[in-house]
Amino acid sequence: MSQFNIAVIPGDGIGTEVIPEGIKALEAAAAKHGVELNFTHFDWSCETYHRTGRMMPEDGLDQLKQFDSIFLGAVGFPGVPDHISLWGLLLPIRRAFNQYVNLRPVRLFEGLQSPLANKQAGDIDFYVVRENVEGEYSNIGGIQYEGTDDEVVSQQSIFTRKGTDRILKYAFDLAQSRDKKHLSSATKSNGLFHSMPYWDSRVEAMAERYPDVKVDQFHIDIFTANLVRMPEFYDVIVGSNLFGDILSDLGPACTGTIAIAPSANINPEKEFPSMFEPVHGSAPDIAGQNIANPIGTVWAAAMMMQHLGCDDMHDTIMGAIETVIRDQLALTRDMGGNASTQELGQAIADII
Ligand code: ATP
Ligand code: MG
């Protein structure tokens, strides 16, 4: 019997409401497929920060290292600046465990209405592959002449050859494994003078190794316009940390609700645990109301099991998500229903 140890960090806001629903789905699927899952909960959050001055203990990363995977809700809450919740928990985990791939699938499910006209299930079905540890999200830079009229702020981006090539390789491999074999790279080579032409040149170099993959490169501005105009064009999208981030909110928005979108922070070499979470944040505006949609978290749980080699558990969980949406069994408000977080989570677990 396979056995996995999962570190669970529900975090803040609706993170604490959706994670139990993800665990319900995992437990049901594990029982069905004879897999043993052991969950260990960590209460690391903005509340921990208020109490202790840290989002997680000093040896937090050491504690997480021994797990097979990390299952995260969301961190961040009003009263704690975003850079503290990000740099105090999320980014250190992504970086220490070399989770350099952020994989975000985007699909229009049967039963959901896209805000784009005339889109059917199947028209929207692509992956955003986002570079997750370098690029524009660096803490290099700073302020000079602070408080004077001459104040200057700089913010550096870092693109390494290794970092660029490995994310591109992951995206090309993914494209090659799919029917369309189509990779689109998001850049901005006319505005970002050094980094983006470099990225483009590495895409071209990598493309030579994948003659069967069709490749195009677009500037991020027209890219976003095209994504809304003709989402069916896209198959695998690859972008830097910033552009990947933007596209992976835009993508799910085209499928009816961002709340169903999952996000996998992957260390493809499996030297360290990977981390699975919904794309959405802690949503303070709806926290505590039991109306948050847990599907992004349940889908993230399915991706976690696929990463751990349990494709059957992944398929079972995805089948249950498809059924619950298609048959409108229990939909939360953002999907046009009036079910609670728990009712939707339970409906998924019951189908499993
Ligand atoms: P972050 O900076 O962490 O990404 P954010 O400011 O982008 O956070 P979210 O927390 O993702 O914000 O929420 C954005 C909007 O989407 C909010 O209005 C929120 O209520 C809604 N939303 C987010 N997640 C869900 C969910 N699971 N169910 C229903 N609505 C959601
Ligand atoms: Mg956001």
Automatic annotation (TrEMBL):
It is an enzyme of class 1 (oxidoreductase). SUPFAM superfamilies: Isocitrate/Isopropylmalate dehydrogenase-like (SSF53659). It holds the Pfam family Iso_dh. Keywords: Manganese, Metal-binding, NAD, Oxidoreductase. InterPro entries: ICDH/IPMDH, IsoCit/isopropylmalate_DH_CS, IsoPropMal-DH-like_dom, TTC_DH. The keyword Metal-binding applies. Residues 5-348 form the Isopropylmalate dehydrogenase-like domain. The keyword NAD applies. Its EC number is 1.1.1.83. Its cofactor is Mn(2+); Mg(2+). It catalyses: (R)-malate + NAD(+) = pyruvate + CO2 + NADH. Belongs to the isocitrate and isopropylmalate dehydrogenases family. This is D-malate dehydrogenase (decarboxylating).
